[in-house]
Amino acid sequence: MTGAATEARSLFARLTGGSPDGVWSAPGRANLIGEHTDYNDGFVLPFAIDRRTYAAAGIRADARIRVASTFDDAVVEVGLDELDALFPDERGAVPEWARYPLGVAWALRGAASRACPGFTLNEALQGDESGHGTDKPGQGWMTTGVDLAIASDVPVGAGLSSSAAIEGAVASALDELWDLGLDRVALAQAGRRAENEAVGTPTGIMDQLAAMLGRADAAVFLDCRSLDAEPVDLGFAGARLALLVIDTRVAHAHSTGGYRDRRDACERGARLLGVPALRDVSVADLPRAAELMDDVTFRRVRHVVTENQRVLDTVAALHREGPRAIGGLMLASHASMRDDFEISVPELDTAVEASVAAGALGARMTGGGFGGAAIALVDHDEVEKVTDAVTAAFAAARFVAPHCFVVTPSEGARREA
Question: pLDDT for 145-159, tens place per residue?
């Protein structure tokens, strides 16, 4: 087991005095391209990374859930029947880190309360509110308590979705311990509901789906409207390419106002254009959009519309020409996020500019923005050169030194032991 997996087991032993019933994990993710398109029903191309969060979990004899993590010394314990009182209105009563695992348990229980014969948990997690009953007989698991101990080697606040990694690990554990039999998309939907309502972060579903559906040396091409997912071979290994993550160490928080403002602008733009979501707007529609809305709203809309097209173009380029053909699309994506969506910061811009000047084929910020990490597509033999150049550029700008490391496209959530 990895260090973080061992930490999770050790924490569980300290918490309970015993051994867990199992250890489950889920990865962080890097988004190759497609930023802020997911909640606009658009397209994204993320991949799971080889850094993971681990949840050691065991059944309790009572109807309580207790969570501990290496993020915080606090241990949080509540009754399962108290979760509805906590979320969403009283979420401030528990530390933010604890809202992720507790929120997943709440989302799963909420889905079950909407389910009945003929109306599955999968359907409930998809938000079907079509008049079915409120109780499903025989769900004794709804009063089965759980202990959870969580540890991770996914950097927090770096734009690599440490939150979805927690949600995926916990959802996988509860799915098995509670014998729910949910598919991976349904578990991702439980994670999104936890993040949106229990934590209060208005994200889309990209991160959770990437954490659940990842595959080795492949990205996941996601249609965020239909939730259709298609693996896309990246071919990094065969092309002797590496994906370098440049963690700027500028922490970001999606629950702050900048993310919400961008989402509001997208929804406003869709209303002005008379469409359900910006997914329904093409590049050819942008001149009309410019006439209907103020400059800021238009630029937000233009980013999403052109970013959707860049995702499609990237998938086509990977299929047709391979990974060396996508560098220009990555750079165009970063410029759009910097200029139109205005979610970059000087550290991210420096990371992109310095890496490309040192020979990277392409680079862009990844994640929700306002900090976090950039990614650079680099020849395998030039990783050290690019890393040194970025570090020197940060020093010259008097920024905090970045943390640079290579990530490998990897598998999604799984049981470890």
Answer: 999 999 999 988 777
Residue 130: is its pLDDT beyond 50? no
In a domain, 194, yes or no: yes
CATH number of the domain at 156, please. 3.30.230.10
Confidence tier at 185 by pLDDT (50, 70, 90): very high
Catalytic-role residue among 38, 207, 247, 340: 207
Active site residue 339: no
What is the spatial distance between Cα 358 and Cα 267, in angstroms, rounded to a whole number? 39
pLDDT of residue 278 exceeding 90: yes
Among residues of the chain, what percentage have pLDDT more than 70?
91
Give me the mean pLDDT over the 235-255 stretch. 87
**157 and 261, same domain (yes or no):** no
In angstroms, the CA 168 to CA 15 distance is 22
- Range(s) of the domain holding residue 362: 231-407
- pLDDT tens-digit series, residues 400-411: 999 999 999 999
Residue 69 has pLDDT above 60, yes or no: yes
Residues 168-173, mean pLDDT to the nearest whole number:
98
Same domain, 92 and 209: yes
pLDDT at 256: 55
Mean pLDDT within 177-194? 93
Are 61 and 173 found together in one domain? yes
